[in-house]
Specification:
- The protein has seven helices and 28 strands.
- It has about 400 residues and is mainly β.
- The two termini are about 30 Å apart.
C-alpha cells in the first residue's frame, strides 16, 4: 500500500534476545499450489457470471488492481500465493501473513472482525502489550474498503522481537471478497519503504534496523517453484544461489521500482517487441506479472490466448514463446512453462494480467511469477534490488 494519511507515530523500541542470533533470520514461506491458485480465478469467474453483469465480472476479475484514493494508492493482495508466520501480542498469537514488498504497513484481523471466519484474529483483551488508538486504519481497494483501527503491540519474527510496533487491527475485510476468505493468509506485512506507509508509520524492518540488530539492512526472497520458499531478514541465504548478484539501482526510494530496457517475445522464427523502455515494481505481494491492458492484449493475441473476464486462458498443450525482460542490460527469461498456470480440467491460466496504473506510476509489476525464477535481494540501505541465479 502506498500513500500518506492519518498521523505519523514515533517509536521507542528495544529488542530481546541475542543480537548475533537475530542477525539473519530465515522465515519459511508456504506456497499455495498453482492449480489451487489458478482454480480460484476460474471458479470465481464462473460464480460471478451467474450473478453479475459482464461489466461487473470484468471489473472483479482484474486480479491485482490499483486505484487512487486521495493520497493513497493500494493494491489488491487477495491473489497472493506465498505466506509465512509471525507472532503478535503478549502472550504471542500466530498469524499467517503475506510478506509484501509492494506495501509498507502491517495489519492483521481483530477479534471483532465479523467476516474473518477461519482466520487467526488478534484477541486484544488477551495481550498485555496491546495499546489501541482512535486513528482509523483505512485502505481503499479496487473492490472495496478494508478498515479498522491503528494500534501497537509486540511483533515477533522468529527470534526478532519488536515491541510497540504500530499496526492495523482490521474489523472489516469486505473489500477483499471471496479470494481472501478462500486464501491461506490472515494479514499483510509490508516490506516497502516507511515513507510510503499509511500514517508514515515505520515498518517492522525499519524499527529492527534502527536498533542495530541486523547485520545488514537487507532481506532476500527464495520463492520455491511448486514448493515452499524462504524469506531471509538481515542478509541473504548463500545456499540458495550461485554467482554474484546483478544489482540494480531503484528509480527512487518509494516503490521497489526499476527501469526495464525492453520486453520481447521470442520464438524460433520471430521476435515480438512488446514494449520499449519502461518501468516496473518488483513485488512479492502480487502473484502474476501485470502490465498495461493494451500490451497484455497484444501479447495474448500473439499466442492465441482467449479472454476470460480480465484474465486470459491458453491451450495447455501449446508451446509458448519465451518472454525476455532486459533489466540494466541483462536478459531475464521467463519461459512458457513458467507463465502458464494449470487450473485443472485442461484449463490453463496465462500468468500475465492487465493492470492500468494511474498516470506517473510504474507500468509493470514483476510479481511472484517473475521472482521465483531468481534469488532476489532487497537492500534498504543502498536502495537497490539484486538478482542472482538459483542453485
Amino acid at each position: 500500500m502506498f500513500g500518506k494519511t492519518v498521523t505519523a507515530f514515533l517509536l521507542s523500541l528495544s529488542l530481546s534476545g541475542s543480537l548475533s542470533d537475530a542477525a539473519v533470520m530465515k522465515i519459511p514461506l508456504t506456497k499455495v499450489s498453482d492449480e489451487e491458485f489458478a482454480g480460484m480465478f476460474i471458479q470465481d469467474n464462473l460464480d460471478m457470471e451467474d450473478a453479475d453483469t459482464s461489466e461487473e465480472v470484468s471489473r472483479k476479475l482484474s486480479g491485482s488492481y490499483l486505484r487512487k484514493h486521495d493520497n493513497l494508492v493500494v493494491k489488491d493482495y487477495v491473489n497472493a500465493q506465498y505466506y509465512g508466520t509471525i507472532k503478535v501480542g503478549t502472550p504471542s498469537q500466530e498469524f499467517r501473513v503475506v510478506f509484501d514488498t509492494g506495501s509498507s504497513n502491517l495489519w492483521v484481523p481483530g477479534s471483532a472482525c465479523s467476516k474473518c471466519t477461519g482466520k487467526n484474529m488478534l484477541n486484544v483483551m488477551n495481550s498485555s502489550s496491546f495499546l489501541g488508538y482512535k486513528n482509523k486504519f483505512y485502505i481503499k481497494y479496487g473492490s472495496g474498503p478494508v478498515s479498522g483501527k491503528f494500534a501497537q503491540d509486540t511483533v515477533t519474527l522468529g527470534d526478532i522481537v519488536v515491541p510497540e510496533q504500530k499496526l492495523g487491527v482490521i474489523t472489516n475485510v469486505a473489500g477483499l471478497g471471496r479470494m481472501y476468505s478462500l486464501g491461506k493468509f490472515d494479514g499483510i506485512m509490508g516490506l516497502g519503504f516507511s515513507s510510503l506507509s499509511l500514517g508514515q508509520v515505520p515498518t517492522v524492518l525499519d524499527n529492527a534496523i534502527q536498533q542495530g540488530v541486523l547485520d545488514e539492512p537487507v532481506f532476500g526472497f527464495f520463492l520455491g517453484d511448486n514448493a515452499d520458499g524462504e524469506l531471509s531478514v538481515g542478509g541473504v541465504d548463500t545456499s540458495r544461489y550461485v554467482g554474484d548478484f546483478h544489482n540494480v539501482k531503484l528509480l527512487s526510494a518509494t516503490y521497489w521500482e526499476i527501469s526495464l530496457n525492453s520486453i520481447t517475445l521470442s520464438t524460433d522464427t520471430q521476435k515480438l517487441a512488446l514494449t520499449p523502455k519502461t518501468t516496473a515494481i518488483v513485488d512479492s505481494g502480487t502473484s502474476l506479472i501485470t502490465g498495461p491492458s493494451y500490451l497484455i492484449r497484444k501479447f495474448a493475441h500473439s499466442i492465441g490466448a482467449k479472454p476470460y473476464g480480465k484474465q486470459w486462458v491458453v491451450d495447455c498443450k501449446k508451446e509458448m514463446p519465451d518472454v525476455t525482460f532486459d533489466i540494466d542490460g541483462v536478459a531475464y527469461i521467463i519461459t512458457g512453462d513458467d507463465y502458464v498456470l494449470n487450473a485443472g480440467d485442461n484449463i490453463c491460466l496465462l500468468g500475465f494480467s492487465s493492470l492500468d496504473l494511474p498516470f506517473g506510476s510504474p507500468k509493470w509489476i514483476l510479481g511472484d511469477l517473475f521472482m521465483r525464477k531468481y534469488y532476489v535481494k532487497f537492500d534498504l540501505g543502498k536502495k537497490e534490488v539484486g538478482f542472482a541465479k538459483l542453485k
